[in-house]
Design brief:
The chain is α+β, with helices and mostly antiparallel strands and 372 residues long. The protein has 15 helices and nine strands. The chain has two domains: 7-182, no CATH class; 208-248 and 273-361, no CATH class. Strands 1-2-7-4 form a four-stranded antiparallel beta sheet, sandwiched between helices. It has a three-stranded mixed beta sheet with strand order 8-3-9. A two-stranded antiparallel ribbon has the order 5-6. The chain binds iron/sulfur cluster.
């Protein structure tokens, strides 16, 4: 039997249902994002979005989420912790023969799991609200032009850190976000007004490629996550040495953040590392043929970059590894059958491997490259 709810009672109930579905928190906001227009437009005007042209499209929809769901007046934002247990994060980063894969990508692709749970949550909400009004709503997981971080902040899930990610006082920043746009006029949560970063700037300083021109602003073109995942072409040479062994994404700005001492380990089976990706040698991964790549990345976020970009990234990692005869032999062997893109990165890696003496992995400063 469907329980009768007032809107206020429903708003109190939603976080409880969300918790039953594995979400760490749920909050409710209105859809007014007008204050985001100017900073977003300025960020786009500077070209900081790089190849991600879709970020410049549908700007009105991004800023007026109600355009995506008829009559939508509220956004229910949820977050789900994803940090797997012991992933030897720091040890892997320090071992130049290992491949560092961003912690969010070690297990199954989160979209499917969160979409399914959000659909279940939306259905519970619909059943509860329909005695009061016709319901129109839709769940989103990183799949439509939704400005999920500002919406999460409006819903009280955290504040925007200087690294531009949402931070929660009790949980740090290792979580995924999802949203339900709804026409139900629920009471809203209070936005967290405080910026709890204070005088800290650890994330800005630690970034290997100096991707933050200033606090709260990311130049994606310099971000290792962008370069290894979103960017389709050759990785600009200036960023290759600072990339070190990061072959899919980068977590440095989150890993250094003091608030992440409060992070919660995820118990979701889907987010646990698969195929040894939390602790693999660069050379082992580089030796995967395409069939092995496709098999081992089935259902993983890594699959979306494709085999060619996977090899491109690994070639950079191998170029940064200590000089080694086995690495040189494998790079040489792969070179002849490689695509033009991969071959160019293999050639760079071979040069690095054969001329190791004066070379040291280092942090890049904006002033040493194109700047902004
Ligand atoms: S590292 Fe410091 S400045 Fe950066 S997000 Fe965390 S608290 Fe804020």
């Amino acid at each position: 039997m469907t329980q009768a709810f007032s809107f206020a009672a429903l708003a109190r109930q939603i976080p409880l249902w969300a918790a039953d579905l594995g979400f760490a928190q749920a909050g409710i906001s209105d859809t007014d994002l007008r204050v985001q227009r100017e900073p977003l437009q300025q960020w786009l005007d500077k070209g900081y979005h790089g190849d991600m042209g879709w970020l410049a499209e549908n700007l009105d929809k991004r800023l007026q989420p109600e355009q995506m769901v008829d009559g939508a007046v509220r956004v229910i934002s949820v977050r789900m912790n994803y940090l797997p247990g012991d992933t030897r994060q720091i040890q892997i980063l320090k071992d130049p023969n290992k491949a560092y894969v961003s912690r969010y990508a070690l297990g199954r692709d989160y979209h499917k799991l969160i979409r399914k749970r959000l659909a279940q949550l939306a259905e519970q909400i619909r059943l509860a609200a329909e005695p009061m009004m016709p319901v129109n709503q839709r769940p989103f997981v990183d799949s439509a032009p939704v400005l999920e971080r500002p919406l999460a902040v409006k819903a009280g899930l955290g504040w925007t850190g200087k690294h531009t990610l949402v931070i929660n006082r009790e949980a740090g920043s290792w979580f995924f976000l999802g949203e339900i746009l709804t026409n139900i006029p629920l009471p809203t949560n209070t936005e967290i007004a405080a910026d709890e970063c204070g005088t800290c700037s650890a994330c800005l300083k630690v970034c290997p490629t100096d991707a933050f021109p200033r606090p709260y602003e990311l130049d994606a073109r310099r971000c290792i996550s962008y370069l290894t995942i979103e960017h389709k072409g050759a990785i600009p040479e200036e960023f290759r040495a600072p990339m070190g062994n990061r072959v899919f994404g980068c977590d440095d700005c989150q890993a250094i953040c003091p608030w992440n001492k409060f992070a919660h380990i995820s118990t979701e089976a889907d987010f646990q590392p698969r195929h040894g990706l939390a602790d693999s040698d660069l050379l082992t991964l580089f030796l995967w043929d395409e069939a092995t790549f496709l098999r081992n990345t089935e259902g993983s976020a890594i699959r979306r970059i494709g085999y060619e970009r996977w090899l491109r990234n690994l070639a950079v990692g191998l170029g940064n590894a200590p000089s080694d005869a086995a690495i040189i032999a494998t790079l040489e062997q792969r070179r002849d059958t490689a695509t033009e893109l991969v071959r160019e990165h293999i050639d760079w890696a071979l040069h690095q491997q054969r001329n190791p003496a004066p070379r040291r992995r280092r942090k890049l400063k904006r002033s040493e490259s194109d700047g902004d």
